[in-house]
Write a structure and sequence with these properties.
The chain is an alpha/beta fold. It has a single domain, classed as 3-Layer(aba) Sandwich (Rossmann fold), CATH 3.40.50.1820. About 35% of the residues lie in helices and about 15% in strands. Helix 7 links the parallel strand 6 and strand 7. The longest helix is centred in the C-terminal third of the chain and has 17 residues. It starts with a strand and ends in a 5-residue tail after the last helix.
Length: about 250
């Protein structure tokens, strides 16, 4: 779903947005359309990705016990395809291919990191924004089991090799692009230590990144339209400025 910037203030930056939802559903409004509208108003071209997930019905029922349904690598293939489409239509949409990034929330944050680390195509993002992301599939102290099951399926969720291979903190490479990372200590859905694991891995590999750990804000707030949740306003404006600075846009 495209949200193209107006030609009068187009920064020529593009972001593919991956909503969260535990790899079982998609929060298309709060972490998709509202996010896109905010960044579009700032002159950034946004594409909300409706990637394949387990679906709530398949997650709750035994349908996937038989091995059917969406699971990894379906969602990775979807974000790879989205990157390809944006790259190949960049001229038509007035996008600079050196300024294409991926942003994701919760499970979508995990997919955001995979969009570079596990990308098997030449169409790779130049920056990544992971907001209260799922990070580890193997550290049982912090793993978000619902996302792991949503991504891997009923049986594969226990596969140790898959758990390790999809724990993004274990696979940061020296050529990883810059990362913006934000989460809240009072997140009651996903342990904020996921972000700490990622921050530590990025630091160890000397990857330029900006990490914001807020005291409050919870989980799933997106860009926020509730004035009582000031955390939402902090991350989105800081992220916007980070993206503009990274892409050498004037303040």
């Amino acid at each position: 779903m495209p949200f193209l910037a107006d030609s009068t203030n187009n920064t020529h930056i593009a972001i593919i947005v991956c909503p969260g939802g535990s790899y079982s559903w998609l929060a298309m409004q709060e972490e998709g359309e509202k996010v896109a509208q905010f960044f579009q108003q700032q002159g950034i071209n946004v594409f909300v990705l409706n990637y394949r997930v387990a679906t709530v019905a398949a997650y709750i029922t035994g349908f996937r016990v038989l091995g059917f349904g969406n699971k990894y690598p379906d969602m990775l293939e979807d974000v790879e395809k989205a990157l390809q489409v944006v790259y190949q239509n960049a001229q038509q949409w007035a996008i600079d291919t050196a300024k294409i990034g991926v942003m994701g929330f919760s499970a979508g944050g995990h997919l955001t990191m995979m969009s570079y680390l596990y990308n098997r195509t030449p169409y790779k993002p130049k920056f990544l924004c992971a907001i209260y992301p799922v990070v580890t599939f193997s550290d049982n102290r912090y793993v978000h089991k619902r996302s792991r099951r949503g991504a891997l399926g009923v049986w594969r969720q226990w596969n140790k090799n898959l758990q390790d291979s999809l724990s993004v903190e274990k696979h940061i490479s020296e050529d990883c692009p810059p990362v913006f990372l934000a989460t809240c200590k009072d997140d009651n859905v996903l342990k904020y230590q996921n972000s700490q694991l990622l921050d530590s891995a990025l630091t160890a590999h000397h990857i330029p990144h900006e990490y914001h750990l807020y005291e409050s804000g919870g989980h799933g707030f997106g860009v926020g339209d509730d004035e009582s949740n000031q955390i939402a306003y902090q991350w989105k404006n800081k992220c916007l400025q980070w993206i503009l600075n990274l892409n050498q846009q004037p303040k």
